[in-house]
Design a protein that fits this description.
The chain has about 160 residues and is an alpha+beta fold. It folds into 2 domains: about 80 residues, ACT domain (Alpha-Beta Plaits), CATH 3.30.70; about 70 residues, ACT-like. Chain A, domain 2 (Alpha-Beta Plaits). Helices cover about 25% and strands about 40% of the residues. The chain has 4 helices and 9 strands, in the order E-H-E-E-H-E-E-H-E-E-H-E-E. The strands form 2 sheets. Strands 5, 6, 7, 8 and 9 form a 5-stranded antiparallel β-sheet that branches. A 4-stranded antiparallel β-sheet has the order 2-3-1-4, with helices on one face. The longest helix has 13 residues. It is elongated and about 55 Å long.
């Protein structure tokens, strides 16, 4: 049975690493549903969070193969039940029809922030799980979406467990 799963990686922070990780997925015919990469507190190290869909065998294979890559220091599954996971959304909405009050109310309902506004647009920032982001997008679609930029999932294990 295929399910979404999250892999956390600690990798060397230099050119080519992302290409090798993505290439491993591509070579095996696995799709990356979401990918987020960022430098850690140590500029020589980056953290990757990759969300994919697959069965238990695929999950095991992905982690095993990732661990073999030279620049991968740590690779492990992050169980959904034991993770804090969020996405970040920037969205530019049409405000030409005078719906700024309605747009502001929706942004507030979702715990978001208005980042910029003009006569004909509002830019909002929303952070939350993927389902929350999807719901917000569905709710504002009738108002007119001009542009979206979505980060992809970032996740960290609850409790004392770390990737380091």
């Amino acid at each position: 049975m295929s399910v979404k799963f999250t892999v956390g990686l600690i990798v060397s922070n230099h050119f080519g690493v992302l290409n090798r990780v993505a290439g491993l997925y591509a070579k095996r015919g696995y799709n990356i549903d979401s990918l987020a990469v960022g430098e850690t507190e140590n500029p020589k190290i980056s953290r990757m969070t990759i969300v994919s869909t697959g069965d238990a065998y695929m999950q095991e294979q992905v982690v095993r193969q990732l661990r073999k890559l030279h620049d991968v220091r740590t690779a492990q599954l992050i169980p959904a039940a034991l993770a804090v996971a969020v996405e970040h959304l920037l969205i530019k909405l049409s405000a030409e029809n005078g719906d700024k009050a309605k747009i502001s109310a929706l942004i507030n309902d979702y715990g978001g922030k208005t980042m910029d506004f003009g006569e004909r647009f509002v830019i909002a920032e929303i952070t939350g799980d993927s389902e929350k982001i999807d719901r917000f997008i569905r709710d504002v679609m009738p108002l007119g979406i001009l542009e979206t930029c979505r980060s992809g999932v970032i996740a960290i294990a609850q409790g004392e467990q770390t990737l380091n």
